[in-house]
Amino acid sequence: MKIFAYALRPYDELPCLDSLSRELGFEYDWTEEYPTLDNALLAAGADGVCIITNPMSRELLAAYRELGVGGLATRSIGYDHIDLAAARELGIRVGHAAYPPDGVADYAVMLMLMALRRIKLVMRGAQAQDFTLAGKIGHSLGTCTVGVVGTGAIGTAVIRRLRGFGCRVLAYDVAEKDELSGLASYVSLPELLAASDVVTLHAPGLPENHHMIGAEELALMKPGAVLVNTARGSLVDTAALVSALESGRLGGAAVDTIEHEENLCYLDRSRDALPNRDRAILSALPNVIVTPHMAFYTEEDVEGMVRSNVEALLAFACGESSPYEMI
């Protein structure tokens, strides 16, 4: 059994993959390059291919199928970057990553605190030796009503943390969890948006969730409310978010992921003029925090991502089922 890994980071993911190869008994090869039609041949002889959040088109999948690749796994929970319909037609089984929810949950709460305490404005002032207090007063998280959109593993972990702060917590999901009874109150999405001081997104990036937060939804939010997104960029209409912030209706935002970031993560683009004007606008606003899609980035989560991908690809190669497979 051989796995070929693309866009593999040598400083954290490679040691995990190497350790797993000895533990589980498989061969591997890798590159830091993202998969393209030009470098597809690097995977020749591999049974499975491991990727990160880069687009996998029908043409690219077909190229791998011609090389004999029967399995594909992405080192991310989200999988909307993969043409699943094409993969099924080509006979390629697809898996995604699983990892503990704690890293993202901690990060989401951290972003809430940073946004509520206006930390970006505070730090900018401190760097310019502006030590005044005017305009920098914040809000206590414990006094806020927080709306959690999506109560999967991560959303549930966020709710448990918020209860420790003493927040009133509202929740929205198409499938309600009995275990959250007493911790959060399920309401409709419009009710949640209208009542929350902070709205945090933890829904999957499914087609039906595309722009679930758009101009209409942003208009429902309380004046001065804060939006946090550590889930998927496609959940939010970025242009509508920019308008809501520029108009002063929203008090701020803290986003770890935005639309059209496929060619940014996880690359050094410090010398490039990026074709992403919405990101540039958001980054310039004093009440907006933009981080580079790294809420997951803990030692525990990285190990979980690589391990779940490897286990999925090994199962695919053996014709076995996998809990990580996208059916």
Sequence of strands across the biggest β-sheet: 8-7-6-9-10-11-12
Going by helix content, strand content and strand pairing, the class is alpha/beta
SS field, number of helical segments:
11
Radius of gyration: 21 Å
Measured as a percent range, the helix fraction is 25-40%
Measured between the Cα atoms of the first and last residue, the distance is 23 Å
Can you summarize the main beta sheet? 7 strands, parallel
The count of β-strands is 12
Which fold name fills CATH's third level, the topology of the largest domain?
Answer: Rossmann fold
N-to-C series of helices and strands: EHEEHEHEHHEHEEHEHEHEHEH
Unreliable segments (pLDDT under 50, ≥5 consecutive)? none
Strand content: 5-15%
In the CATH scheme, the class of the largest domain would be Alpha Beta
Question: Any idea what the shape is?
Answer: globular
CATH architecture of the largest domain: 3-Layer(aba) Sandwich
